[in-house]
Amino acid sequence: MKKIVLLIGSTSKLASCFYKNYADKYHIVTSSRSPSSDLNIDLSTKIDLTHIPDRLDVAIFCAGMSNIKELEQNVLLPARVNCISTIDLCRALNARRIPIIFISTTAVFSQSSNINSEFDKATPECNYGLFKACVENELMLFKPNTVLRLPKVIGHNSLLTKWAESLAQGRPITCFSDIRVAPLPIKLVADYFSYLIDSSSNGIVHLSPNSDLSYYNLALKLAQSLNASNSLVKSISSDDSTAEAIYKPAKAFLDCRRKYSQSISLDESLKLIFDDLKACS
Ligand SMILES: NC(=O)c1ccc[n+]([C@@H]2O[C@H](COP(=O)([O-])OP(=O)(O)OC[C@H]3O[C@@H](n4cnc5c(N)ncnc54)[C@H](OP(=O)(O)O)[C@@H]3O)[C@@H](O)[C@H]2O)c1
């Protein structure tokens, strides 16, 4: 019998990719603020649980405000959406013995932190990381829950898609030389959701490349993979940019020490991302 999966935030990039690839394998119940979803859940208002099916094997939690800058500007709405209502909904699901796979982030660690394994204490500095860390703490009270921490996920219509379009047209791109990133291909994350569902994982798990690089070096590697000229890739320091950078981690990848965690080589991760970009162009 197919497992029944509640996909909370089904319109998100990550959940959409999981749905696209796994709608045949699982019975997926979608939930978002969109009328096209099976269930309507708006985390900015009081949540109505009456329509949530009794029999669910697991819930994957992808909903939330994810623009780091927006979370710093107005704290009240993000606190409601990303923390208070998220915890309320998780508690209600756990009360029905439904385990949750909650998608968290490297931003639960401070920007200067060099230690960030599953066993290290969260040290958030921005609201985005702080709210995620609060939810993580709550979720760890119910043993069957899983917290999946991810670095930057690269999907379709991402920054790299725009860079690739510019490079293909011979237009220069300007990239941060002092902000590090550990990019993960979105399909790998969707596959990992499936692995976690099937392995009945629990606790904190990490999925991450084993290293990171600057956005500038990422762009150079992209140019190389597209046979575009390196001279089109310009570097800029975030200090000289008008775009304010809130989260500049000294180390953008996660240490992976636990059984359910998975580390992938950075080169392999980049190859999957670039191949996917080429296939979609
Ligand atoms: N993408 C990454 O690189 C990355 C890395 C680490 C962790 N994560 C985490 O993974 C999760 C999914 O990321 P994503 O990038 O795929 O997200 P996304 O595309 O930004 O989508 C965010 C989702 O949250 C929903 N949402 C926003 N406000 C809501 C509210 N008030 N009530 C209910 N739902 C609301 C949106 O639904 P609507 O369609 O209704 O707006 C959408 O489904 C997020 O929790 C994010 O923090 C992402």
Q: Tell me about the biggest sheet?
A: 8 strands, parallel
CATH third-level topology of the domain at 4-154 and 184-208 and 254-264: Rossmann fold
Helix count?
Answer: 8
CATH superfamily of the domain at 4-154 and 184-208 and 254-264: NAD(P)-binding Rossmann-like Domain
Low-pLDDT windows of residues? none
Portion in beta strands: 15-25%
If you average the pLDDT, what whole number results? 95
Please tally the β strands and state the result.
Answer: 14
**Helix-strand sequence:** EHEEEHHEHEEHEEEHEEHEEH
Ligand roster: NADP nicotinamide-adenine-dinucleotide phosphate
By CATH, the architecture of the domain at 4-154 and 184-208 and 254-264 is named 3-Layer(aba) Sandwich
Q: Rough shape?
A: globular
Determine the structural class based on helices, strands and strand pairing: alpha/beta
Per CATH, the class of the domain at 4-154 and 184-208 and 254-264 reads Alpha Beta
Rg calculated over all Cα atoms: 19 Å
